[in-house]
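Q: For a teaching session next week I want to show students how multiple molecules come together into a single three-dimensional assembly. I've collected the sequence lines for a complex. Could you give me the predicted C-alpha coordinates for the whole thing so I can convert them for display?
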Amino acid sequence: MKIWNSNPAWPWPCDEEIAKYLDVPDYYLAGYEEVRGFLRGLHKGRIESAGKSAGGRDLTVVYCGPDAPERTLCVTGGTHGTEVEGVAAVVNTIRVLDCGSDLRGQAWPALTEVARRVGFYLMPFFNPDAAARAVVKSYVGMPFEVVNHLHVGFWKNGRTLDRKRVFGPWTPESDLTGKLDRVGYLGARYNDAGADINRPCSRTEATAVETRQMLEYLRQRRVDCYLDMHSHSTDPWLGICPPEHTSGNHGDLVKLQQLTREKTVQAGGPDLKLVVKGTRTWFNSHFFPANLGIYALTYEEKAGFKGNFPEETPPEEIWLANVYNGMRTILGLAQALLEVPSPWS
Ligand SMILES: [Zn+2]
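A: Of course. Below is the structure for the complete assembly, covering every listed component.
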Protein backbone atom coordinates (compact mmCIF):
# COMPACT_ATOMS: atom_id res chain seq x y z
CA MET A 1 0.00 0.00 0.00
CA LYS A 2 2.71 2.41 -1.03
CA ILE A 3 0.08 4.97 -1.95
CA TRP A 4 -0.57 5.62 1.75
CA ASN A 5 3.05 5.89 2.83
CA SER A 6 3.94 9.29 4.22
CA ASN A 7 7.67 8.71 4.64
CA PRO A 8 7.63 8.00 8.35
CA ALA A 9 10.89 7.75 10.28
CA TRP A 10 11.99 5.74 13.27
CA PRO A 11 11.60 7.68 16.51
CA TRP A 12 15.29 6.95 17.28
CA PRO A 13 18.37 6.32 15.12
CA CYS A 14 17.69 2.78 13.91
CA ASP A 15 19.62 0.97 11.18
CA GLU A 16 16.68 -1.14 9.97
CA GLU A 17 15.26 -0.28 6.53
CA ILE A 18 11.84 1.18 7.42
CA ALA A 19 10.27 0.63 3.97
CA LYS A 20 10.38 -3.12 4.61
CA TYR A 21 7.75 -2.68 7.34
CA LEU A 22 5.45 -0.41 5.35
CA ASP A 23 4.89 -2.42 2.21
CA VAL A 24 2.15 -4.87 3.19
CA PRO A 25 -0.48 -6.77 1.20
CA ASP A 26 -3.75 -4.87 0.68
CA TYR A 27 -5.67 -7.22 2.95
CA TYR A 28 -3.26 -6.62 5.84
CA LEU A 29 -5.06 -3.41 6.68
CA ALA A 30 -3.83 -2.30 10.09
CA GLY A 31 -2.52 1.27 9.82
CA TYR A 32 -4.57 3.84 11.72
CA GLU A 33 -5.34 6.18 8.80
CA GLU A 34 -6.03 3.39 6.30
CA VAL A 35 -8.48 1.69 8.65
CA ARG A 36 -10.24 5.02 9.29
CA GLY A 37 -10.64 5.35 5.52
CA PHE A 38 -11.91 1.79 5.18
CA LEU A 39 -14.55 2.39 7.88
CA ARG A 40 -15.87 5.43 6.02
CA GLY A 41 -16.76 3.18 3.08
CA LEU A 42 -18.87 0.54 4.83
CA HIS A 43 -22.19 -0.59 3.36
CA LYS A 44 -24.11 -2.32 6.13
CA GLY A 45 -21.92 -2.04 9.24
CA ARG A 46 -23.29 0.54 11.68
CA ILE A 47 -20.68 2.94 13.01
CA GLU A 48 -20.92 3.60 16.73
CA SER A 49 -18.67 5.27 19.25
CA ALA A 50 -17.70 4.14 22.73
CA GLY A 51 -16.30 7.60 23.46
CA LYS A 52 -12.97 9.36 23.02
CA SER A 53 -9.41 8.35 23.75
CA ALA A 54 -7.21 10.41 26.06
CA GLY A 55 -5.78 12.02 22.90
CA GLY A 56 -9.29 12.90 21.65
CA ARG A 57 -9.54 10.13 19.04
CA ASP A 58 -12.87 8.41 18.47
CA LEU A 59 -13.31 4.96 20.02
CA THR A 60 -15.01 3.65 16.91
CA VAL A 61 -16.99 0.43 16.99
CA VAL A 62 -18.74 -1.20 14.03
CA TYR A 63 -21.92 -3.16 14.72
CA CYS A 64 -22.70 -5.99 12.31
CA GLY A 65 -25.56 -8.37 12.95
CA PRO A 66 -29.31 -8.66 13.36
CA ASP A 67 -31.52 -6.08 15.04
CA ALA A 68 -32.42 -8.52 17.80
CA PRO A 69 -29.37 -10.77 18.23
CA GLU A 70 -29.51 -13.91 20.36
CA ARG A 71 -26.02 -13.15 21.71
CA THR A 72 -23.58 -10.29 21.32
CA LEU A 73 -19.81 -10.34 21.04
CA CYS A 74 -17.42 -7.41 21.24
CA VAL A 75 -13.95 -7.88 19.74
CA THR A 76 -11.14 -5.36 20.18
CA GLY A 77 -7.86 -5.15 18.32
CA GLY A 78 -5.00 -2.76 18.86
CA THR A 79 -5.06 -2.65 22.65
CA HIS A 80 -1.29 -2.70 22.21
CA GLY A 81 -0.27 -0.64 19.21
CA THR A 82 2.42 -2.92 17.79
CA GLU A 83 0.10 -5.96 17.88
CA VAL A 84 -1.46 -5.25 14.50
CA GLU A 85 -2.34 -8.91 13.78
CA GLY A 86 -5.54 -8.43 15.79
CA VAL A 87 -6.38 -5.21 13.93
CA ALA A 88 -6.07 -6.97 10.57
CA ALA A 89 -8.27 -9.84 11.82
CA VAL A 90 -10.96 -7.45 13.13
CA VAL A 91 -10.92 -5.37 9.93
CA ASN A 92 -11.27 -8.46 7.72
CA THR A 93 -14.11 -9.71 9.93
CA ILE A 94 -15.86 -6.36 9.44
CA ARG A 95 -15.33 -6.71 5.67
CA VAL A 96 -16.91 -10.19 5.62
CA LEU A 97 -19.93 -9.11 7.65
CA ASP A 98 -20.28 -5.87 5.70
CA CYS A 99 -20.21 -7.29 2.20
CA GLY A 100 -19.68 -11.06 2.22
CA SER A 101 -15.97 -11.51 1.60
CA ASP A 102 -12.66 -10.58 3.25
CA LEU A 103 -10.17 -8.16 1.73
CA ARG A 104 -8.67 -10.99 -0.36
CA GLY A 105 -12.09 -11.70 -1.84
CA GLN A 106 -12.61 -14.92 0.10
CA ALA A 107 -16.13 -15.71 1.30
CA TRP A 108 -16.70 -16.92 4.87
CA PRO A 109 -20.12 -18.64 4.76
CA ALA A 110 -19.92 -19.87 8.37
CA LEU A 111 -19.13 -16.38 9.64
CA THR A 112 -21.92 -14.84 7.55
CA GLU A 113 -24.23 -17.54 8.88
CA VAL A 114 -23.43 -17.03 12.57
CA ALA A 115 -23.89 -13.26 12.15
CA ARG A 116 -27.60 -13.92 11.47
CA ARG A 117 -27.90 -14.82 15.17
CA VAL A 118 -24.94 -13.16 16.87
CA GLY A 119 -24.41 -9.39 16.90
CA PHE A 120 -20.77 -8.32 16.50
CA TYR A 121 -19.37 -5.13 18.02
CA LEU A 122 -16.04 -4.85 16.23
CA MET A 123 -13.45 -2.33 17.31
CA PRO A 124 -10.21 -2.22 15.30
CA PHE A 125 -8.43 0.05 17.82
CA PHE A 126 -9.02 -0.07 21.54
CA ASN A 127 -6.01 2.24 21.92
CA PRO A 128 -6.18 4.62 18.93
CA ASP A 129 -3.57 6.96 20.45
CA ALA A 130 -0.97 4.19 20.24
CA ALA A 131 -2.15 3.20 16.75
CA ALA A 132 -1.79 6.77 15.51
CA ARG A 133 1.70 6.90 17.04
CA ALA A 134 2.88 3.74 15.24
CA VAL A 135 5.45 4.32 12.49
CA VAL A 136 5.13 1.01 10.61
CA LYS A 137 2.28 -1.26 9.47
CA SER A 138 3.82 -4.68 9.87
CA TYR A 139 6.36 -6.21 12.22
CA VAL A 140 6.96 -9.31 10.11
CA GLY A 141 10.68 -10.10 10.11
CA MET A 142 11.54 -7.25 12.49
CA PRO A 143 14.26 -8.03 15.06
CA PHE A 144 12.80 -8.35 18.55
CA GLU A 145 14.95 -5.51 19.99
CA VAL A 146 13.37 -3.12 17.49
CA VAL A 147 9.82 -4.33 18.18
CA ASN A 148 10.50 -4.12 21.89
CA HIS A 149 11.77 -0.52 21.69
CA LEU A 150 8.65 0.48 19.77
CA HIS A 151 6.36 -1.52 22.04
CA VAL A 152 7.68 -0.51 25.45
CA GLY A 153 8.67 3.05 24.62
CA PHE A 154 11.65 5.00 25.93
CA TRP A 155 12.74 8.03 27.92
CA LYS A 156 14.38 11.05 26.31
CA ASN A 157 17.76 9.66 27.36
CA GLY A 158 17.05 6.66 25.09
CA ARG A 159 16.59 4.11 27.85
CA THR A 160 13.66 1.74 27.48
CA LEU A 161 10.98 2.11 30.15
CA ASP A 162 11.31 -0.26 33.09
CA ARG A 163 9.68 -3.58 32.18
CA LYS A 164 8.23 -3.97 35.68
CA ARG A 165 6.44 -0.67 35.29
CA VAL A 166 5.09 -1.63 31.89
CA PHE A 167 4.32 -5.35 32.18
CA GLY A 168 3.64 -5.97 35.88
CA PRO A 169 0.39 -5.54 37.81
CA TRP A 170 -0.69 -1.90 38.18
CA THR A 171 1.12 0.15 40.81
CA PRO A 172 1.18 3.94 41.23
CA GLU A 173 4.40 3.78 39.13
CA SER A 174 2.69 2.05 36.19
CA ASP A 175 1.26 5.17 34.59
CA LEU A 176 3.38 8.01 33.21
CA THR A 177 0.97 10.76 34.20
CA GLY A 178 3.05 13.78 35.22
CA LYS A 179 6.18 12.34 33.60
CA LEU A 180 5.33 12.76 29.93
CA ASP A 181 7.86 15.59 29.48
CA ARG A 182 10.63 13.06 30.13
CA VAL A 183 9.33 10.53 27.60
CA GLY A 184 11.05 10.27 24.19
CA TYR A 185 8.51 7.86 22.68
CA LEU A 186 5.34 6.64 24.38
CA GLY A 187 5.40 3.20 22.81
CA ALA A 188 2.44 0.95 22.10
CA ARG A 189 0.80 0.43 25.49
CA TYR A 190 0.05 3.93 26.72
CA ASN A 191 -2.69 6.33 25.74
CA ASP A 192 -1.74 9.97 25.18
CA ALA A 193 -2.29 10.75 28.87
CA GLY A 194 0.31 8.15 29.81
CA ALA A 195 -2.09 5.54 31.22
CA ASP A 196 -1.10 1.90 30.66
CA ILE A 197 -4.25 0.91 28.87
CA ASN A 198 -4.62 -2.74 29.83
CA ARG A 199 -3.84 -2.37 33.54
CA PRO A 200 -6.88 -1.54 35.64
CA CYS A 201 -5.76 -0.76 39.21
CA SER A 202 -8.35 -2.96 40.87
CA ARG A 203 -11.79 -4.49 40.48
CA THR A 204 -13.39 -1.05 40.50
CA GLU A 205 -10.79 1.40 39.21
CA ALA A 206 -9.07 1.95 35.86
CA THR A 207 -6.87 4.95 35.06
CA ALA A 208 -7.30 4.57 31.27
CA VAL A 209 -10.28 6.60 30.10
CA GLU A 210 -10.75 4.12 27.22
CA THR A 211 -11.35 1.24 29.65
CA ARG A 212 -13.79 3.23 31.77
CA GLN A 213 -15.85 4.25 28.73
CA MET A 214 -15.74 0.73 27.32
CA LEU A 215 -17.18 -0.60 30.58
CA GLU A 216 -20.17 1.72 30.17
CA TYR A 217 -20.52 0.88 26.48
CA LEU A 218 -20.62 -2.88 27.20
CA ARG A 219 -23.05 -2.29 30.08
CA GLN A 220 -25.46 -0.13 28.06
CA ARG A 221 -25.60 -2.62 25.21
CA ARG A 222 -25.66 -5.63 27.51
CA VAL A 223 -22.86 -7.22 25.51
CA ASP A 224 -22.48 -10.91 26.40
CA CYS A 225 -18.84 -11.46 25.62
CA TYR A 226 -15.64 -9.48 25.18
CA LEU A 227 -12.59 -10.70 23.23
CA ASP A 228 -9.29 -8.79 23.31
CA MET A 229 -6.78 -9.64 20.59
CA HIS A 230 -3.04 -9.59 21.22
CA SER A 231 0.15 -11.07 19.80
CA HIS A 232 3.55 -12.05 21.12
CA SER A 233 5.79 -15.08 20.82
CA THR A 234 3.84 -18.16 21.91
CA ASP A 235 1.59 -20.42 19.87
CA PRO A 236 -1.98 -19.05 19.84
CA TRP A 237 -3.72 -19.22 23.21
CA LEU A 238 -7.01 -18.21 24.74
CA GLY A 239 -7.08 -16.92 28.30
CA ILE A 240 -9.83 -16.28 30.82
CA CYS A 241 -9.81 -14.66 34.26
CA PRO A 242 -9.71 -16.69 37.49
CA PRO A 243 -13.01 -17.29 39.37
CA GLU A 244 -12.14 -14.47 41.80
CA HIS A 245 -12.16 -11.91 38.97
CA THR A 246 -15.69 -12.39 37.69
CA SER A 247 -19.05 -11.65 39.23
CA GLY A 248 -20.57 -13.99 36.62
CA ASN A 249 -20.64 -17.76 36.29
CA HIS A 250 -17.04 -18.94 35.95
CA GLY A 251 -18.15 -22.48 35.05
CA ASP A 252 -19.98 -21.12 32.00
CA LEU A 253 -16.90 -19.08 31.07
CA VAL A 254 -14.74 -22.22 31.22
CA LYS A 255 -17.31 -24.02 29.07
CA LEU A 256 -17.28 -21.16 26.56
CA GLN A 257 -13.48 -21.29 26.41
CA GLN A 258 -13.49 -25.06 25.76
CA LEU A 259 -16.24 -24.84 23.14
CA THR A 260 -14.35 -22.05 21.40
CA ARG A 261 -11.28 -24.24 21.17
CA GLU A 262 -13.30 -27.05 19.54
CA LYS A 263 -15.10 -24.80 17.11
CA THR A 264 -11.96 -22.89 16.16
CA VAL A 265 -10.29 -26.16 15.18
CA GLN A 266 -13.42 -27.15 13.23
CA ALA A 267 -13.20 -23.79 11.43
CA GLY A 268 -9.66 -24.64 10.32
CA GLY A 269 -8.04 -22.43 12.96
CA PRO A 270 -5.28 -23.13 15.48
CA ASP A 271 -5.56 -25.58 18.37
CA LEU A 272 -5.69 -22.89 21.02
CA LYS A 273 -3.91 -23.48 24.30
CA LEU A 274 -6.37 -22.72 27.09
CA VAL A 275 -5.16 -20.59 29.98
CA VAL A 276 -6.70 -19.41 33.26
CA LYS A 277 -4.88 -16.29 34.43
CA GLY A 278 -3.84 -15.67 38.04
CA THR A 279 -5.28 -13.14 40.48
CA ARG A 280 -2.23 -10.87 40.69
CA THR A 281 -2.89 -8.70 37.66
CA TRP A 282 -6.04 -6.97 36.46
CA PHE A 283 -6.48 -6.85 32.70
CA ASN A 284 -9.41 -5.34 30.80
CA SER A 285 -10.61 -8.89 30.17
CA HIS A 286 -10.89 -9.32 33.96
CA PHE A 287 -12.20 -5.85 34.75
CA PHE A 288 -15.29 -6.18 32.53
CA PRO A 289 -16.40 -9.59 33.93
CA ALA A 290 -15.72 -8.36 37.47
CA ASN A 291 -18.01 -5.38 36.98
CA LEU A 292 -20.63 -6.80 34.62
CA GLY A 293 -20.48 -10.57 35.05
CA ILE A 294 -20.03 -10.95 31.29
CA TYR A 295 -17.73 -13.42 29.53
CA ALA A 296 -14.31 -12.19 28.46
CA LEU A 297 -11.33 -13.81 26.81
CA THR A 298 -7.86 -12.80 25.73
CA TYR A 299 -6.52 -14.19 22.47
CA GLU A 300 -2.81 -14.10 21.81
CA GLU A 301 -1.41 -14.88 18.39
CA LYS A 302 2.18 -15.67 17.49
CA ALA A 303 3.42 -12.31 16.17
CA GLY A 304 5.31 -12.08 12.90
CA PHE A 305 8.53 -10.61 14.26
CA LYS A 306 11.87 -12.32 13.78
CA GLY A 307 12.46 -15.59 15.61
CA ASN A 308 8.80 -16.59 15.93
CA PHE A 309 8.51 -18.36 12.56
CA PRO A 310 11.23 -20.38 10.80
CA GLU A 311 13.63 -18.01 9.02
CA GLU A 312 12.67 -19.27 5.53
CA THR A 313 8.90 -18.70 6.00
CA PRO A 314 7.66 -16.32 3.27
CA PRO A 315 6.20 -13.11 4.80
CA GLU A 316 2.96 -13.73 2.88
CA GLU A 317 2.45 -16.95 4.82
CA ILE A 318 2.91 -15.15 8.14
CA TRP A 319 0.51 -12.31 7.26
CA LEU A 320 -2.08 -14.85 6.18
CA ALA A 321 -1.68 -17.00 9.29
CA ASN A 322 -1.95 -13.92 11.50
CA VAL A 323 -5.16 -12.70 9.89
CA TYR A 324 -6.89 -16.05 9.43
CA ASN A 325 -6.00 -17.56 12.82
CA GLY A 326 -7.60 -14.55 14.45
CA MET A 327 -10.68 -14.63 12.21
CA ARG A 328 -11.22 -18.35 12.79
CA THR A 329 -10.99 -17.80 16.53
CA ILE A 330 -13.57 -15.00 16.32
CA LEU A 331 -15.80 -17.36 14.32
CA GLY A 332 -15.29 -20.24 16.80
CA LEU A 333 -16.11 -17.98 19.73
CA ALA A 334 -19.27 -16.60 18.09
CA GLN A 335 -20.51 -20.14 17.42
CA ALA A 336 -19.65 -21.24 20.96
CA LEU A 337 -21.44 -18.25 22.45
CA LEU A 338 -24.76 -19.60 21.17
CA GLU A 339 -24.27 -22.69 23.33
CA VAL A 340 -23.88 -20.97 26.70
CA PRO A 341 -26.49 -18.87 28.47
CA SER A 342 -26.38 -15.10 28.13
CA PRO A 343 -24.78 -13.71 31.31
CA TRP A 344 -27.56 -11.12 31.39
CA SER A 345 -30.35 -13.74 31.54
ZN1 LIG B 1 -0.70 -7.23 24.02
